[in-house]
Amino acid sequence: MNRNIEASTALMTDMYEYTMLDAALKDGTADRRCVFEVYTRHLPEGRRYGVVAGTGRILDAIRDFHPTQDELRFLSDNHIVSGRTIDWLEDFRFTGDIRGYREGELFFPDSPILQVEGGFGECTLLETIILSILNYDSAVASAASRMVSAAKGRPCMDMGARRASEGAAVAAARAAVVGGFQGTSNLLAARLYGIKAIGTAAHSFTLLHDSEREAFVAQIDALGRNTTLLTDTYSVEDAVKTAVEVAGPDLGGVRIDSGDLGSLAQRVRNQLDALGATKATITVTNDLDEYAIASLQTAPVDSYGVGTMLVTGSGAPTCAMVYKLTEREGASGRMEPVAKKSVGKANLPGRKLAYRSYEYNLAEAEHVVAGDEEALASFRPDEGWRDLLVDYMVHGQADTSYQGRDALPRANEHRARSLSEMPISALSLMKGEPVIPTLTEVI
Fold first, then answer.
1. Would you state the pLDDT for residue 6?
2. Of 10, 29, 140, 271, which sees the most CB atoms within 10 A?
3. Model-level pTM?
4. 330 & 229 share domain
5. Could you list the residue range(s) of the whole structural domain that residue 134 is in?
6. What is the pLDDT of residues 369-382, one digit of tens each?
7. How many domains does the chain have?
8. In this structure, are residues 41 and 322 in contact, taking their beta carbons and an 8 Å threshold?
9. Under a CB-based contact definition with an 8 Å cutoff, are residues 2 and 69 in contact?
10. What is the pLDDT of residue 344?
């Protein structure tokens, strides 16, 4: 095998997953059928809901989860696994099943967000890559959704690339779109996922020139009159006047990146209108979060550029999701529900079904039904309950409709629909309990 090391995700994991595999191969339990579940015990403090994001990236990561020769050599040379395990890994491919919540679906405490079924060895290897993607992407999408709700229909754009690591910046841009954002400054994310690319010039471009007027002329010559000019390098009022003088009434827009954004937006709107640039838009940036966006609802702002608070989940950079074994094949060959009993960390045994019930077209509860395979096969939900689980992979074959560019707008549309079904308190930015309860049942 001569696969490029960059194409493999096989070492994006914790060492104990490989050492567990090694030990399980030695004692003969590596092929025991198992069901692992991803869920969170609680939402970030005060949040009303979460948004699932990253499942499309998980399918990509599993596709690429096969160790290269260099990676196998690393595992061997560092005595992480035995020679027998190296042989087992030579042609490794995940052959199991994955079911879970659709990307863009809302989730709550104890929602069975993802269920991974297969041999213990193949399932345990995927734990870290699945959690790292789901925890981060869902945190960003959840924050983005709150920001989009606060924006009341005005576009939100991702400008957070310089506030995250390079890989996380691309993941965040994608997750932000799941959450309802409409563009990104990150060109790699734009290319990979077909996201609208945004951006014109920074303060340094103005400072480079001998005058603000020269900088504006240069930008308009390069990008056209429909460009957006940055107006707060010096005096906002002077900059707006110069911008209209240079671009004329066809000026595309201005950006404000500092100061009292609401007051400045109002003054700038009045000034633009007085100067004849009535169609020029106003974009605001500068450490925005959902609360700052909500405070600007009455200001004449046309769009928001969000950076730090987006890529850090607006104070909740992870969803605290865990990956737990809930069912496994016993010595008899029968599948048996299992669970931890640790204080504060106990989990519901068995594989799960998940539904959402409604009253007067509004969601009223999340229903999680646990049991063995036979019991769940005979379970019949109440009329009107919506099944929340979809098949992502069957016998190692991925449903590619959940991958790639086209999956992204569908995930955002699904989020919007799911959120519209929630009680209006889901849109509240005040701290509170999850907007609907999660009801669990063991059958």
1. 53
2. 140
3. 0.95
4. no
5. 5-140+319-442
6. 999 888 999 999 99
7. 2
8. yes
9. yes
10. 74
